[in-house]
Specification:
Blueprint (H helix, E strand, L loop, with lengths): L4 E3 L9 E3 L2 H10 L7 E5 L4 E9 L6 E9 L6 E7 L4 H13 L4 E6 L10 H14 L7 E2 L3 E2 H7 L4 E5 L7 E2 L8 E6 L7 H9 L3 E4 L7 H15 L4
Parallel strand pairs: 1-3, 6-7, 6-12, 7-8, 7-9, 10-12, 10-13, 11-13
Antiparallel strand pairs: 2-5, 3-4, 4-5
Helix pairs in contact: 2-3, 2-6
Function: Specifically methylates the N3 position of the uracil ring of uridine 1498 (m3U1498) in 16S rRNA. Acts on the fully assembled 30S ribosomal subunit.
GO molecular function: rRNA (uridine-N3-)-methyltransferase activity
Main location: cytoplasm
Length: about 240
């Protein structure tokens, strides 16, 4: 039987005992009705995986003893998606969830010319990533940035391979036909797509234009499609 699995970002490899967060404590004690001696799995989202035993049940500050600790190795592949901010938080959450499940390692919310909403709740987004990481049984949470202006994203990119997906009727290569390198960054536009000027600036900075198929996709759907194609090309699934 698989042990219950939780995200505890403060967990460290040299811990002997550890006090669970209020949310994890509540779920273990009040929802799962775990008793003293029950076992569970914890990760700090940075590859640390620990099997622990509940030693002091408490609804807000339960304590556990660490039994075994493993430091998982992070893949050498780095996959980043920069995505235009969306008005609808639920749609952005959907992208964040699926991108995490697919193994995207870095996510950059972008403020572009056509972005209609710049408000972004980092705490809400991080909670979505953490839940998706746990659901998909991973031990690394994607790096999530605060919203960054588009011009900074393209100017500061250090990725080996830089791609931009857009809807303009100009020459581009389908992402499904591209050989993906070890480090790749893909930019996805907001509702209304990138502006012509933004596309031109990206190409000047070394970004190659790519297509995501013949249909015009919503931003979050384009982001997930890109994540799927990059993951498949990286042979992760």
């Amino acid at each position: 039987m698989q042990l219950p699995y939780f995200f505890e970002p403060l967990l460290q490899a040299d811990d002997t005992f550890y006090t669970l967060s209020e949310s994890t404590s509540k779920h273990c004690v009040q929802v799962l009705r775990m008793q003293m001696g029950s076992q569970l799995l914890l990760t700090n989202g940075n590859g640390l995986l620990a099997t622990v035993t509940l030693t002091a049940p408490h609804k807000t500050k339960a304590q556990v003893k660490l039994d075994t600790i493993q430091q998982q190795e992070r893949s050498t592949r780095k996959t980043c998606i920069g995505i235009g901010l969306l008005k609808n938080n639920t749609r952005l959450d959907w992208f964040l969830e699926k991108a995490t499940e697919l193994g995207i390692t870095e996510i950059i919310p972008m403020m572009t010319e056509h972005t209609e909403k710049n408000h972004f709740r980092q705490d809400r987004a991080t909670a979505v990533l953490a839940a998706a990481m746990i659901q998909s049984q991973q031990s690394f949470i994607p790096t999530l940035h605060e919203p960054i202006p588009y011009h900074r994203v393209i100017e500061e990119s250090t990725y080996q391979q830089k791609l931009i997906a857009h809807c303009e009727q100009t020459p581009k290569t389908e992402l499904s036909q591209i050989n993906i390198q070890n480090e790749v960054q893909l930019l996805i536009g907001p509702e209304g797509d990138f502006s012509t000027n933004e596309i031109s600036l990206a190409e000047q900075k070394g970004f190659s234009p790519v297509g995501l198929g013949t249909n015009r996709l919503r931003t979050e759907t384009a982001g997930i499609t890109g994540a799927v194609l990059l993951t498949l090309k990286n042979n992760n699934i």
